[in-house]
Amino acid sequence: MSDELIHFDGSTATLADKPALKKPPMYQVVMHNDDYTPMDFVVDVLMQIFFLDEAAATSVMMAVHQKGKGVAGIYPKDIAETKTMIVNQVAQEHEHPLKCDCEALPDDE
């Protein structure tokens, strides 16, 4: 395959002329501990919304319980915000005080 691109007007450009693309900034979805939300509810949320298996969901839930917060996943901004909104909505619908938010990661991660 040639490194040249031919435009419709007949001119050519090399692949070096293409702009460099950056990866989108990533955000981590963070769940926060409270004293009332049942642990099994947190595990269910992690499995259903973040598609974690039971072992991974339990591990995140234990981090939330023992350290005060845990990372449910890392996503581009729009996905992280959507998952955060869904968790908060589901928790509210089930009358649990579970809170979730998203935090920007540094560009180098």
Automatic annotation (TrEMBL):
Keywords: Hydrolase, Protease. GO terms for biological process: protein catabolic process; proteolysis. One of its GO terms (molecular function) is peptidase activity. Residues 22-100 form the Adaptor protein ClpS core domain. It holds the Pfam family ClpS. It comes from the Bacteria. InterPro entries: ClpS (IPR022935), ClpS_core (IPR003769), Ribosomal_bL12_C/ClpS-like (IPR014719). Belongs to the ClpS family. Binds to the N-terminal domain of the chaperone ClpA. Involved in the modulation of the specificity of the ClpAP-mediated ATP-dependent protein degradation. This is ATP-dependent Clp protease adapter protein ClpS. It comes from Umboniibacter marinipuniceus. The gene is clpS.
